[in-house]
Amino acid sequence: MLCSGFHLWAVLLEAVTQISLTTLRNIIGHHTLDDVLKEKDKLAEEMRKTIDNVTEPWGVQVQMVEMKDVVIPESMQRAMAQEAEALREKRARIIKAEAEMEAAQRLRDAAQVIMDSPAGLELRRMQMITEVGAEQNTMTVVMMPSEFVSMARAFAEMKPRETKTD
Q1: Distance CA 121, CA 129 (A)
Q2: pLDDT tens profile 124-155
């Protein structure tokens, strides 16, 4: 009788171990490496509930699960590393795009300020010449009066009118 009780206990231990390993693989497979590292306790509790649901009909109650020394197969490590790299690249692109959008908005605001005050454009030109002159370089600056810009704008506006009348 003692032998069969021990055998039953050994079978239950093996079954719980197999369910635990399968649950661990499923949990790790459904989460990113960052999630597994950041939320170990939450994932361990999720594992405990899953294992307990399976083993409860056998009279086995799981009280605690702790993930430690998890050995991830090399192929899965590569896949997780590639996923983590892709997430880092995605975050970098999003940050860069947000910076570009902010820069574009600031340039638009600056252009509006300059358009509202033609003297501001002249002051900006003088500031640019001062900055270029302060550096020791071989840059040549050709200054054009803002009237040329206004004249070019007027020509650009006249051209569509001329083609409409044809």
Answers
A1: 12
A2: 878 887 877 777 667 676 767 777 778 888 88
What pLDDT, on the 0 to 100 scale, is given for residue 161? 59
Render pLDDT for 21-70 as a digit per residue (tens, 0 to 9). Answer: 888 888 878 887 777 778 888 888 988 999 989 888 888 888 888 887 77
| Among 16, 1, 84, residue whose Cα is nearest residue 50 | 16
Structure tokens at 63: 């009280």
Rounded to 5 degrees, φ, ψ at 91 are -60, -40
Count the Cβ atoms, other than its own, within 10 Å of residue 94. Answer: 10
Residue 70 dihedral angles phi and psi, to the nearest 5°: -75, 125
What is 7-71's CATH number?
3.30.479.30
